[in-house]
Amino acid sequence: MSGRRIVRGVWTLFAILGSVAWLAAVAGWFRGAGQVPVLREAPAAGKQIDRYPCVSVVVAARDEEAGVGEALGSVLDQTYPGSLGVLAIDDRSTDGTGEIVSGLAAQRPDRLRPVRPSVPRRRKSRRVAPAQSRAAGLPQRFNMSKPP
């Protein structure tokens, strides 16, 4: 029976050490999260923002002719003082989605870049990756089920 007690004690020790490590990680995250500057709080704190971060918006659309123009127009009309880029992925649409995106890109070439993936229709992450690689500040590849 002493062998079972030793095994149970070892597993208990692992559980305790794992819990302590997890709590330390969570406490460190909360401590660090309070130090991340939030843009909307800067004017209230009297701080001047000399450089805004670059923001890239990736919009994937397939057969969204009815709403893609309004959705992209809303993103393009944002008044963001930093650099804002929009990548519109036409995911092999069979309606007029591609034409609407191309028309908006012709009007706003400074902010909107249309992308039509050439990868066969297998996995969404493979279709989005070509557009994502063009986005400033985003990782080259990611899994859609996990945030970048």
Structure overview:
This protein is an alpha/beta fold and 148 residues long. The chain folds into 2 domains: 1-36; 48-132, Spore Coat Polysaccharide Biosynthesis Protein SpsA, Chain A (Alpha-Beta Complex). The protein contains 4 helices and 3 strands; from the N terminus they run H-E-H-E-H-E-H. It has helices at 2-33, 68-76, 97-107, 124-132; strands at 55-61, 84-90, 112-115. The protein has a 3-stranded parallel sheet with strand order 1-2-3, with helices on both faces. Strand 1 (55-61), helix 2 and strand 2 form a beta-alpha-beta unit. Helix 2 packs parallel to helix 3 (97-107). The longest helix is centred in the first third of the chain and has 32 residues, at 2-33. 11% of the residues are buried.
What name does CATH use for the topology of the largest domain?
A: Spore Coat Polysaccharide Biosynthesis Protein SpsA, Chain A
On the 0 to 100 scale, the average pLDDT is 76
Beta-strand segment tally:
3
Spans of at least 5 consecutive residues with low confidence:
136-148
**Gyration radius, to the nearest Å?**
24 Å
Distance between the termini: 49 Å
Q: So what's the overall shape?
A: flat
CATH architecture tag of the largest domain: Alpha-Beta Complex
Adjacency order of strands in the biggest sheet:
1-2-3
CATH superfamily of the largest domain: Spore Coat Polysaccharide Biosynthesis Protein SpsA, Chain A
Percent helix: 40-55%
> Helix tally?
4
| Major sheet | 3 strands, parallel
Number of domains: 2
Write down the secondary-structure element order: HEHEHEH
The level 1 CATH classification of the largest domain is Alpha Beta
